[in-house]
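As agreed, record copied across for absentees:
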Amino acid sequence: MTGRGNRGKKRNPPLNTRRANKNARLVRFLFTIHHHQ
């Protein structure tokens, strides 16, 4: 799944970078919560 996401991000235009950043933030938050637990 990560490979597909990476390919999509590379193919997607810079405009999607904002969306990716928001997603990354949510993912990081979830990851931190899981790690803390």
About this structure: The longest helix spans residues 15-36. The chain has one domain: 2-36. The CA atoms of residues 1 and 23 lie 15 Å apart. The two ends are 25 Å apart (CA to CA).
